[in-house]
Write a structure and sequence with these properties.
The chain is mainly beta.
C-alpha cells in the first residue's frame, strides 16, 4: 500500500497529469491496477473540504516525505525534494507554504487549497511535557548553521539530519533521524526507528544567496513581510501574509522543503527563488505599504522587438510606458537585469546560434506591470530562412489541392532552429522521462541553451535530429542521468490548429532502440474531452520495412481507444518519404507519399486543438534498448514540415 517504486510512481504521474502518448501509451489502469486500501479514518476538522480536494496522509512516516492520497489512490509528496526524487513536479503536490498547524497547503497546479494529515490517527504519540531544548532527556537536533541540513545532537554526541536527502547523502538511515512530517512550526518531528516524537531547532546565520536573482530579505522578521531590492517592492515569506496584502501567493518565494539553504520555490515563475531572514543586508523603506497589483496605471511594455542582432550581441527595443521609472528584463524565464529610463537594452552575453527569449515589465510609483509578450531571437550573423513551400502544393493528393492553403511551415533551409516556430521540450519538465526511454531531449531553445551540445544540425536544405551517447563533458544531473541525448521539436507556443492536412518529408535511421516519430497531440487535457493523439508516422529502427500510423483518444467513460495500422515496404531507410494525414470532422485519412492508407471515421474523431511534434526517442518499452549493432550518432532527417487548412 505504501510505495509503488520510483519507476511506477514516475509513470503514474505522467499518466495522471497528461495521459498522453508518444508517442505515449502508458495509462493508469495498466500501471496501477486494483489496490486494496485500508479504511480511511475520520479526517476531523477537514472532512468536508477533503472530499473535494487532495489530502496527503503520511500514514507511515519514514522521513522520506512520501504520503498517500486515498481518494486519488496514489502516492503524494510532502516536500519538493521527495517529489523530485520520485520523478514528480513539485507544483503538482501539496506543500505547507505557511505552516500554522491547520493542515492546509497550496497546490500550484490546481490553484487551490490542499490538505495533509495532521490528525492524531496518523501521527506519533503526544510528546512529554516540558521544554525539549532544556530537557537533557530528549533528543534535539540543533542546526546552528542552517546551510546543508546537517545539525548536531548533544544527547547522542553525533551529527543529525533535518531531511531524508541529507541523511542518505551522509550514509544514514532516514528513519533514525528527526523529520517534520507535518510541518506546523512547533519544532516537533517524528523518529520512525524509535516510533516517537523528536525535536529540532534551526538557528544561526543565514547563507548569502547568489547574485542576479530575486531575493526577499526580511530584515525585521516579525510580520512575514520583506523587501526585494531588485523589484524595489515588498515581498512576502508566507501565503497568509501575501493574501492579507492582496498578493497572489504563487508570485512569491516559499520554502517548500525547508533545509536552511535559503532557497524556495516560486510557482508562478516555476523556478527556484531565494530569501533571507534576519539580515540587514537590505533595509526596506521606513514606511511600508503593500505593493499594488499590476494596474492600468503602469501599462505592459508593447512592441518588444530586436533592432540589431549578431553572433555576439542582441539589441532589443520597446515603446515608452507613461509613468515608468524603469524596466525589468527577463531572459529565458529568469530575471536578468533592470534598466532605468531607457527603452532599449544591448545583451552582449550571448552565444552564436543560440536562442534567447526576452520579456520586459515596467515599474514606477510603487506599481508594477505584468511581463510583455516574449520576444524570441537567435544570436546569429545574417537573416533567417525565407524559404516558402511550392505554390503548386504538389505533395498533396490532387483532389485536395484546391481545398487547402498553407497555414504553417518550416522548410529548414537555414542554419538554426527558428524559436518563433519551435519549442525544443515537452510542456512538462524536461527531466520527466516517459515510456521508460533512455534519452534526454536537449532544450536548446530554453533551459539547456548553455549546455554546450545540440542535437540539431542543418545542411542548408534539411534539419537533422541526432541521438548520441551523452558526452562525458555534460554533467549527468543536467540530462536527468540519461545515457543518451536527442532532440524534440513542437509547435506548442507558435501554432495550434483544429482540422487540416499535416505532412512531413523525413528520412529515418536504422538500429535497435531507435524510435523517430511525427505526430499531433491535443493542446489542452480537459476532463470530458477526447484528448486525441494522431501518430502520422512512428517507426522502430529494428523494423526497417514497417511504418505505423495510429489514432488514439478517450471515450466518454475514460477508456483509451486506439486504431493502429502499419504499412510495409522493402526498406524505409533507403531515402525520404512523405508521411501525412488529413483531419476533418468525423474523418482522419493517413497517407504515405500521397497514397491513402488507413482511415478512421465516426464520432470518435476529435475536434480539439492539436499541435505538431517530431522527435527521435532512444529506448523505451516499445523499441527496446539499443544493442551493440546500433550506430551512434543516429540521424533523423526532416526536409520540411507543412500544415494546410481549408480555404
Amino acid at each position: 500500500m505504501r510505495k509503488k517504486g520510483k519507476e511506477s510512481r514516475f509513470l503514474w504521474v505522467i499518466c495522471l497529469l497528461l495521459a498522453v502518448g508518444g508517442p505515449i501509451y502508458i495509462f493508469r489502469n495498466a500501471i496501477v491496477g486494483d489496490r486494496s486500501l485500508p479504511d480511511v479514518p475520520d479526517v476531523g476538522l477537514f472532512q468536508v473540504d477533503a472530499q473535494k480536494n487532495p489530502y496527503c496522509f503520511d500514514v507511515s512516516p519514514l522521513g522520506d516525505g512520501v504520503g498517500y492520497n486515498f481518494s486519488a489512490n496514489e502516492d503524494c509528496y510532502l516536500n519538493s525534494e521527495a517529489a523530485r526524487a520520485n520523478g514528480a513536479e513539485p507544483k503538482n503536490h501539496c506543500f505547507d507554504t505557511d505552516p500554522t498547524g491547520d493542515g492546509k497547503g497550496w497546490n500550484a497546479f490546481t490553484e487551490k487549497l490542499c490538505y495533509f494529515g495532521t490528525d492524531k490517527a496518523f501521527g506519533p504519540a503526544e510528546p512529554p511535557t516540558g521544554n525539549p531544548l532544556e530537557d537533557p532527556g530528549l533528543d534535539v537536533c540543533i542546526d546552528s548553521a542552517p546551510v546543508d541540513g546537517v545539525g548536531f545532537n548533544a544527547q547522542r554526541n553525533a551529527e543529525c539530519y533535518l531531511n531524508s536527502e541529507v541523511a542518505r547523502a551522509n550514509g544514514a538511515d532516514p528513519r533514525n533521524h528527526c523529520f517534520d512530517t507535518d510541518p506546523t512550526g512547533d519544532g516537533k518531528g517524528y523518529n520512525a526507528a524509535d516510533d516517537r516524537t523528536c525535536y529540532f531547532q534551526v538557528g544561526g546565520p543565514v547563507i548569502e544567496p547568489p547574485t542576479k536573482q530575486d531575493i526577499c530579505v526580511d530584515a525585521t522578521p516579525v510580520d512575514g513581510v520583506g523587501f526585494n531590492a531588485q523589484r524595489n517592492a515588498e515581498c512576502y515569506l508566507n501565503s497568509e501574509v501575501a493574501r492579507a496584502n492582496g498578493a497572489d501567493p504563487r508570485n512569491h518565494c516559499f520554502d517548500t522543503d525547508p533545509t536552511g539553504d535559503g532557497k524556495g520555490y516560486n510557482a508562478a515563475d516555476d523556478r527556484t527563488c531565494y530569501f533571507q531572514v534576519g539580515s540587514t543586508a537590505v533595509e526596506p523603506p521606513v514606511e511600508k505599504k503593500p505593493v499594488e497589483k499590476p494596474t492600468t496605471d503602469i501599462k505592459i511594455p508593447e512592441n518588444l522587438r530586436s533592432s540589431k542582432v549578431s553572433s555576439s550581441s542582441i539589441t532589443i527595443l520597446w515603446d515608452q510606458v507613461t509613468g515608468a521609472e524603469g524596466y525589468n528584463i527577463e531572459r529565458n524565464g529568469s530575471y536578468f537585469t533592470t534598466v532605468n529610463a531607457a527603452t532599449s537594452f544591448i545583451d552582449s552575453d550571448v552565444k552564436n546560434l543560440t536562442a534567447y527569449s526576452y520579456k520586459v515589465s515596467a515599474f514606477g510609483g510603487g506599481k508594477f506591470s505584468n511581463n510583455s509578450e516574449p520576444l524570441k531571437v537567435v544570436a546569429v550573423n545574417g537573416g533567417g530562412d525565407t524559404s516558402v513551400p511550392p505554390a503548386d502544393k504538389a505533395t498533396l493528393p490532387a483532389n485536395l489541392r484546391d481545398q487547402y492553403s498553407i497555414a504553417f511551415f518550416d522548410e529548414f533551409n537555414g542554419q538554426y532552429l527558428n524559436p518563433e516556430k519551435w519549442n525544443t521540450s515537452f510542456i512538462w519538465p524536461s527531466d520527466l522521462i516517459i515510456n521508460n526511454e533512455e534519452q534526454y531531449y536537449v532544450d536548446v531553445n530554453g533551459q539547456d541553451n548553455d549546455l554546450g551540445v545540440s542535437p540539431f544540425s542543418f545542411d542548408g536544405s534539411s534539419l537533422t535530429i541526432s541521438a548520441r551517447k551523452t558526452p562525458s563533458s555534460v554533467p549527468a544531473d543536467r540530462v536527468a542521468n540519461q545515457e543518451y541525448i536527442s532532440g524534440l521539436i513542437t509547435s506548442y507556443d507558435a501554432f495550434k490548429f483544429t482540422h487540416g492536412y499535416a505532412e512531413a518529408r523525413v528520412k529515418v535511421p536504422k538500429g535497435q532502440g531507435l524510435w523517430p516519430a511525427f505526430w499531433l497531440l491535443n493542446a489542452y487535457y480537459r476532463e470530458g474531452e477526447k484528448k486525441p493523439e494522431i501518430d502520422i508516422m512512428e517507426y522502430l529502427g529494428h523494423q526497417t520495412s514497417r511504418a505505423y500510423q495510429t489514432y488514439h483518444y478517450f471515450d466518454p467513460a475514460g477508456k483509451k481507444i486506439s486504431s493502429e495500422s502499419h504499412v510495409d515496404k522493402s526498406d524505409y531507410t533507403d531515402g525520404y518519404y512523405i508521411f501525412s494525414a488529413e483531419w476533418k470532422p468525423g474523418l482522419i485519412q493517413f497517407y504515405i507519399d500521397g497514397k491513402p492508407h488507413h482511415k478512421i471515421e465516426g464520432d470518435g474523431v476529435a475536434n480539439e486543438q492539436m499541435y505538431l511534434l517530431a522527435n527521435l526517442a532512444v529506448g523505451g518499452w516499445w523499441p527496446g534498448t539499443p544493442n551493440s549493432q546500433t550506430e551512434f550518432p543516429a540521424e533523423y532527417s526532416i526536409d520540411w514540415i507543412r500544415v494546410y487548412q481549408k480555404n
